[in-house]
Amino acid sequence: MSFQAAIFDELTPIYPDTCASGGFSEYSVAGCNGTVVGAHIVLNGLVPGLPVTVVVNGGHRCYKMFELLAVPVEVNSGAKLRTEYLKDDVNAFVIRRAPFMVYEALNPFYNIFAPPYASAAIAFKTPVEYCREARTQKWEITIEQGGASKTLLLNVDEHPFNVPKANKDTFKYINWFDFDRLAIDFHCDKWSDFYFKILEQYLRAAVFSRQNTFCINTAEIFERTDSGKALLNEKRLDRIIKTAKRAGISLFHGGAFALRKMYMNDDEVYASMDHSAINHPEEIARQYSKQAFDVFDNCHEAQTAVTGQALPGEDGEAAVMSMAGQLFSYIEKNGLADCWCQYCLDEPNTALETVYRRICGIVKRAMPGIPILEPTLQGLPLAGTMDIWCPSLDQYEQDIEFYNSRAAQGDKIWIYSCLTPAANYCNRLLDMERLRAVWIGWAPLIYPDIEGFLHWGANSGAGVGAAGDPFRRQAASFTENVLEFHPKHAMFLPAGDFAIFFPGVGGPMISTRSEAHRIGFEDLHLLSLLKEKSSQSVLPLVRKVFRRFDDFEKDVAVYRAVRRELFELLSK
Q: What pLDDT, on the 0 to 100 scale, is given for residue 247?
């Protein structure tokens, strides 16, 4: 028997058909106190089902190993919007043409696993701790199957600088969690003891990835009474906050009090179409998409979360005032005012300007001193409303003069990404370089007003099943029923948009993309240290690899070289 094995950088995307001959038998990576470093190992020529054992010799036994699980990418992200499926626009800036499988989820194992295919991949990771002077830890990793073996060498160059754990003072970072999805994925009752155990595990994974802010959806903590009013469930909120703090979360983001009002369900959309002009079933999908975008973009009314009352309108505004007042009383009573920000209405646009200003005014009166943080599609029309602006990173860059003016007047700036932007912008979709997520951590050195990053998709649907089955669910988001043959182009989300953590056995699996975020935010702390020591050295170093959100280095080897230069500059 024989098989092939080689090391690849953990930021290099690898696939089930990646050839081990393109990797290394010996590889070096660098890290410092408070970081975790590692590498990926590609295996070819295995006997499916025959156990593979891994024997590790090195400086300690506090390493971890993971079997990398592949997830499907059915459709590439679009050149401008969502997916190529939507407008048939070919995105030239993808790592591979869909459909393909890519190694993504990290399923932990101790020293043995049974590969289902002839190829497999492993992630090896070790923490760097108690390093008081520069040193190199040498790791010997021996993989064995059926009497054949391969030995690989990993050198970890350790440095005596310190990166603190994510806390209230580190760069702000949010992933929104889907509370219902946790119950579905782990077959448990929502709000049961086991449910809170799973929630804590997911939040620990998020904190490990440098997340320090947790969004608590309004619909999860308010209940509708028999009289139609919203009542805060303080006991549930108590337990959610205690669970989050126990996991290491420092800051909280209150969920939206209002949502866009959508006027038609699917059947009504289809009924409103001019079917006499349709000559092909594909045109149904295109008409539906146009209708959906028209409703989304031109929606000028909202409705309250939980109770569903119209906004603007006296009943709806009274409901918002009541919910905001109840929540503010809880925040003050529990000493949370210095770690709370509030969310009013998801992605307000120009059409919603009037109603958004009314909602903001209500929330500011009901929750004095609590800053409003809002992901937004618009800048100038909403001036004077929110305290923390959170535009998509491409919109921030394209309208940077406006956001600079808001920062000059005391507002704070975050950025976000989601199903956009695509093309050559930084994001974390599955058909993009993992380096793009790293550069989000480097961006504040170019744009010093940016204080935080938000993404909606922590676990809302997933690409890997609860038992590590890569085919149980899709990596892209289909909204159609199984036997619906007219797909909703507008609702087809890009692969990886809505999940960065995957359900494993008894808890979450982290991903190659969550690890890329962690590495980028660890780098941000080191770059900030260098800025304090030698401010003139930082920008020239950063600009070697990152210049704009759509102008950055894609070669992992170049990134590693510049990162080593960062360690050298800090050593001086």
A: 98
